[in-house]
């Protein structure tokens, strides 16, 4: 038995699972339905203890997955979407390794491994390296490790991915057989698979539980009034007369069928009324045969789309409300800013009135600064100029004789070299 209470998982500001509460009994097959990104795999990972929840609790057979992880995990067999396989091991080696991890008793280890391989039909590849197996066989090996040891709870995340049609039929049959003695949780976005295998369906959208019921009840609840399609062999007037005697019909239409001498009728029953038996007996008493009688209702696909669309619409409304709240806050902030600007404008005349007093003292300051600058600049300028000129003259006078003597010596050496030649 699994009890999930107010389970929440957040990644920063992103909420992957939002306050999920549900309960699963033993001996049933449960299906998790939801679009991509709905939170199915995240929920599976939290149930198995693979990742920790932000809030809430998960109990498996009474053991809390976070407080008593070892006892809780002993009750669970898990096949993630990507099977956790070791490519350098053979199939048999991998299952022995898994049996050791699960602490299966030595006297039962060999028996359980053989039964798991027989159950998943991988006995003939037990000595082959996993790296050399096809994707379908790798999926089977992952399935074998999940059921190894016959845990009370078996969690399967997209178990038929990569399998051919024949393998999918075999795996579905296997899941149904496991459901007799185990609690099986199947996560999938393949609606036909869930409809064929699962007894109870949870539909998740945007991390929230939007529906929880059997497949039949979900379809009946979403379909509303019953709709019957009839193909009757008889005249149109006679068919209309018979239908007028029936109780529980909300609306009807009768038209000629393509078959000779036949009529097609579409009947809509009142809410919560099943009119099939009454219609059958009325036409039987009149001696008019009903060649076809079909019930037109919503498919699981239509129910799924409606529920997930409703969830998306609710999310959109919440976003709109949040945006409207932000808009109101922004408008209030703008109003406060405008008030502040008005106060600033009111204070400007007071500042301007104090300016003349400051300007009246300006001439004295300027005169003082001008006098000080004039008294300093001439002397300083003449002093710097005199020093510069004296320095340049001294350098010129001291450097010129030396250069003249060097040039003269160079010319003398050149003349003597030419003479020697």
Structure description:
The protein is an alpha/beta fold. Among the domains are: 219 residues, Rossmann fold, CATH 3.40.50.300; 68 residues, MTH889-like domain (Alpha-Beta Plaits), CATH 3.30.70.1340. It is 53% helix and 21% strand. It is built from 12 helices and 14 strands. A 6-stranded mixed sheet has the order 6-7-8-3-9-10, sandwiched between helices.
Largest sheet at a glance? 6 strands, mixed
Distance from first to last alpha carbon: 121 Å
Q: Could you say what the CATH topology of the domain at 2-220 is called?
A: Rossmann fold
Radius of gyration: 46 Å
Please tally the helical runs, counting DSSP H or I stretches of 4 or more residues. Answer: 12
Report mean pLDDT, rounded to a whole number. Answer: 77
What multimeric state do the chains show?
A: single chain
Secondary structure: helix percent: 40-55%
- CATH homologous superfamily name of the domain at 2-220? P-loop containing nucleotide triphosphate hydrolases
Q: Provide the β-strand percentage band.
A: 15-25%
Order of helices and strands: EEEHEEHEHHHEHEHEEHEHEEHEHH
Quickly give the CATH architecture of the domain at 2-220.
3-Layer(aba) Sandwich
Number of beta-strand segments: 14
SSE-based structural type:
alpha/beta
Assign the CATH class of the domain at 2-220. Answer: Alpha Beta
Pick out the low-confidence regions: 315-328, 354-363, 375-386, 393-406
The side-by-side strand order for the widest beta sheet comes to: 6-7-8-3-9-10
Label the overall shape: extended
């Amino acid at each position: 038995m699994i009890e999930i209470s107010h389970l929440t998982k957040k990644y920063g500001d992103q909420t992957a699972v939002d306050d999920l509460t549900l309960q699963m009994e033993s001996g049933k097959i449960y299906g998790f339905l939801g679009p991509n990104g709905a939170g199915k795999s995240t929920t599976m990972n939290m149930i198995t203890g693979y990742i920790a929840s932000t809030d809430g609790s998960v109990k498996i057979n009474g053991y809390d997955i976070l407080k008593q992880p070892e006892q809780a995990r002993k009750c669970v067999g898990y096949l993630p979407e990507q099977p956790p396989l070791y490519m350098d091991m053979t199939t048999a080696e991998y299952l022995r390794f898994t049996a050791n991890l699960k602490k299966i008793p030595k006297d039962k280890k060999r028996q359980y491994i053989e039964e798991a391989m027989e159950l998943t039909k991988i006995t003939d590849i037990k000595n082959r390296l996993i790296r050399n197996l096809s994707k379908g066989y790798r999926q089977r090996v992952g399935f074998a490790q999940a059921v190894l040891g016959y845990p009370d709870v078996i969690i399967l995340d997209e178990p038929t991915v990569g399998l051919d049609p024949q393998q999918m039929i075999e795996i579905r049959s296997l899941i149904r057989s496991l459901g007799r003695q185990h609690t099986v949780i199947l996560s999938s976005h393949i609606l036909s698979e869930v409809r064929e295998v699962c007894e109870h369906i949870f539909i998740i959208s945007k991390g929230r539980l939007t529906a929880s019921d059997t497949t039949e009840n979900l379809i009946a609840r979403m379909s509303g009034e019953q709709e019957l399609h009839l193909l009757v062999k008889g005249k149109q007037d006679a068919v209309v007369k018979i239908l007028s005697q029936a109780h529980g019909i909300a609306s009807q239409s009768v038209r000629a069928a393509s078959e000779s001498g036949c009529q097609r009728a579409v009947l809509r029953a009142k809410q919560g009324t099943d009119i099939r038996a009454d219609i059958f007996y009325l036409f039987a008493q009149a001696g008019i045969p009903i060649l076809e009688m079909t019930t037109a209702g919503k498919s699981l696909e239509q129910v799924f789309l409606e529920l997930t669309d409703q969830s998306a619409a609710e999310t959109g409304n919440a976003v709109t409300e949040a945006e409207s709240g932000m808009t109101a806050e922004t408008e209030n902030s703008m109003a406060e800013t405008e008030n502040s600007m008005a106060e600033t404008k009111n204070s400007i005349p007071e500042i301007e009135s104090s300016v003349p007093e400051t300007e009246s003292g300006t001439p004295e300051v300027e005169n003082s600064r001008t006098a000080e600058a004039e008294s300093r600049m001439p002397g300083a300028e003449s002093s710097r100029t005199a020093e510069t000129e004296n320095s340049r003259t001294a350098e010129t006078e001291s450097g010129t004789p030396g250069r003249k003597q060097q040039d003269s010596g160079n010319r003398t050496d050149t003349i003597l070299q030419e003479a020697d030649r």
